[in-house]
Every structure is written in structure tokens, then in C-alpha cells.
Amino acid sequence: MGKKQKKVTAPHPKAAPKSEPDNGMTLKDLLSSDMVNKLKAQADEMKQAEANHKEELRKQEEEKKKQEQKRLENDFSYLLENSDPSWSKHK
Asked: Among 10, 19, 39, 65, which is 20 to 30 Å from 55 by CA?
């Protein structure tokens, strides 16, 4: 049996080409200031929307827990199984 050959893969298409010299220009330098401000505003809006979405999910989970606890408090078998068997404390 022969040795297995390793497959050579091409570089990722989104990777920056290394053949171009770095001339010190950044994307911020290439874009106009109003475009940079618009992009920053859009990023802030997206962050705020994500934070609102996470807060809404947290509130929904909290509400589900409250409803489940309320349902369990009305279930006699659950209360019987989870109550303290020492009734002397409640005299």
C-alpha cells in the first residue's frame, strides 16, 4: 500500500491577496466621512436591535418560569411531594 497524498487546497477567496503591497490606506480613508458615519449609525442600530431582542427573550423565559411555578403551586401532588415533612415548624 502506498502513502496517502495530502490534498492542497486553494486559499480562501475572501482572504486578502498577499501580492498587493500595503500602502497604508484603510477602508476608513477610502470612504467619505458621511458614509463612515452612516455605517457607524447602522452598526449602533443593529447592536441596539440585538440587545432589545435578547431582553425580549429573557422576559419571555422569565414569564414562562412564572407560569410554570404558578401551575405547580396549584398542583396538589407536586406540593405534597416537595413540602417539608416536619409539621412541627408550622405550629
From this structure: 39
pLDDT in tens, 59-75: 999 999 999 999 988 88
Cα dihedral angle (50, 52, 53, 54), rounded to 10 degrees? Answer: 90
- Rounded to whole angstroms, how far apart are CA atoms 15 and 31? 21
pTM of the model: 0.51
What's at 45, amino acid-wise? E
- How many Å apart are CA 80 and CA 87, to the nearest integer? 12
Q: Please tell me the distance from the alpha carbon of residue 65 to that of residue 70, in angstroms, as a whole number.
A: 9
Closest CA to 50 of 62, 40, 38, 42: 42
